[in-house]
Amino acid sequence: MHQKSKTLATWLALTLGSLGAHRFYLYGRRDTLAWLHPLPTLLGAAGALRMQNLGQDDHAAWLLIPVLGLMLSISMLTAIVYGLTPDARWAECHNPGQPLQATGWGPVIGVVVALLVGGTVLMGTLAFGGQMYFEYQKQAG
Q1: How far apart, in whole angstroms, are the C-alpha atoms of residue 37 and residue 131?
Q2: How would you write the pLDDT of the chain (141 residues) with one tens digit per residue?
């Protein structure tokens, strides 16, 4: 069994986490949770494409785009958790019986980027969802 890098897991969660890449890396192809990531992410991306092609009046896009925001926010949170996990705890969970390796600045930089991106995505998703909700209420009333 090869060592699982905390730096690589952090950056996989940051860049491809919404597709489950970090879970595939850590737990392999048989990980059920990893397979649950791509579908909502792709549905949310389809919502973004629908809005781009059909405009802001597409109600399906209103429902699907927040799903993409949620998946991106979850992957940023995962990157933060991985990056802030102490090296000893990481080794205990993912590299049992192997020598402890210090990770350096890679996970820390990943955490900073994940905080910036995650905060932006989360606030954008909340703002979009709120705007669409109130516009729908205005149309219905």
Answers
A1: 26
A2: 688 999 999 999 999 999 999 999 999 999 999 999 999 999 999 999 998 898 877 888 888 999 999 999 999 999 999 999 999 999 999 999 888 888 899 999 999 999 999 999 999 999 988 888 888 787 776
Is this structure's pTM higher than 0.85? yes
DSSP state of 3: P
CA distance 115 to 76: 7
Structure tokens at 5: 């890098």
CA distances to 90, 95, 137 from 106, rounded to whole Å, are 14, 18, 46
* Residue 96 DSSP SS3: coil
Instruction: Give the E-state strand segments of 10-132 in sequence order.
Output: none
- In sequence order, the 6+-apart residues with CB closer than 8 A to the CB of 84 are 107, 111
